[in-house]
Amino acid sequence: MKDLRKHYSAIIIGGGQAGLSVSHYLQQQAIGHLVIEKHSLMHSWQTARWDSFTLVTPNWQCQLPDHPYDGDDPKGFMKRDDVVAYLDRFATKVQPPALEGVAVNRVSLNSNGKYAVKSSAGEFSADQIVVASGGYHLPIIPRMAERLPDRLFQLHSAEYRSPEQLPEGAVLVVGSGQSGAQIAEDLHIAGRKVFLATGDAPRVARQYRGKDVVEWLDEMGYYEMLVDQHPLREGVRDNTNHYVTGRDGGREIDLRKFALEGMELFGLLEEYRNGDFIFRDNLQANLDHADSVYCNINQRIDAYIASQGIEAPPASEYTPCWEPNQERSELNLVDAGISAVIWCIGFRPDFHWLDASVFNGQGHPIHKRGVTQQPGLYFIGLPWLHTWGSGRFSGVAADAEYLVERIKAYQRQQDAALQPLSEQASA
């Protein structure tokens, strides 16, 4: 980057779609800023997705600032390489003033009210800081993993690429959220023997009554629901996403169907002891919970169709295609022929570099629509930042535009405070 300065009106930390969306609106307002990215722009999309990855939301929901989906399949689901290309085109449009390959080591507030940014490329300062590094930083791997045999191949879902990456043998997939369910399916389709340790993740239909469920929910206003309007309030930010897939044109995922086809399902993985994996006896409860959410969403769509007098195909009722006869609570590693374990149990946030008293006990930032109680400090790109759509390509533009308005207002306030009293009186 040319003409690198030491002080900026705003510094954005993170060069993904959220950070670049903020840069887009800052440029429109002629507010000087710098984007600092630890790797390369859109790095996580390029490196942290498996080979068969697809979006789980339809392409038409890709609505980045002045960059809507520009392909010929709006109701389809972009594959990983297509998503990367879409985001690269967005970055080319924005042309952010960015430093790539630069790690931020410390951000703190000086006594003069400016933010000091220490990085691997030197020190900078800013009037305001936008944290756009997301909330998925540290892969969660339980301590029991340390006691598994050295011969066992272990990796986190963020490192998974394809079945060919794993040694021959059966695979234990731990976790049934979006990543776990889709990775288990990927291995299952490839003919691998899969054991799946389930959790309490909900599921959703792909198509229902003539439309993709996402289209129905969008029409019903669900993606514009404010976090304050949700029954759980801020607690909804901790919810696991519904599992579904955009693979092969999009379809729902039913773990019961996998079980009919030979995948072995278990409850929550609790322990590893003397060569045995120990599971909680809650497989039935996990499956029933996922199905109850699935059915509840369909019923809400039914009610909406009825209330609006919409002509649509008739409603249908889900019937479980498989039930566990007797839940198994133990699985012997050797007897099962397991050669690999994939941990699909999420991430922890890591904002250790940010010296600010704006975090809760779990390390998540406390904010109102991305605005923290510390003046000039903002977050973007987090689930349920403001609405359900905040964590999707459909909602980041509105979040970014709102934050830039706040940044602009704060800048005006600071500029006014610096004016001599005589100038303020004559203004």
From TrEMBL:
PANTHER family: FLAVIN-BINDING MONOOXYGENASE-LIKE PROTEIN (AFU_ORTHOLOGUE AFUA_4G09220) (PTHR43539), FLAVIN-CONTAINING MONOOXYGENASE (PTHR43539:SF78). Gene3D superfamilies: FAD/NAD(P)-binding domain. GO terms for molecular function: flavin adenine dinucleotide binding; monooxygenase activity. Transmembrane segments: none annotated. It comes from the Bacteria. SUPFAM superfamilies: FAD/NAD(P)-binding domain. Pfam families: Pyr_redox_3 (PF13738). The keyword S-adenosyl-L-methionine does not apply. The keyword Zinc-finger does not apply. Its EC number is 1.-.-.-. This is Oxidoreductase CzcO. NCBIfam families: MSMEG_0569_nitr (TIGR04046). Keywords: Oxidoreductase.
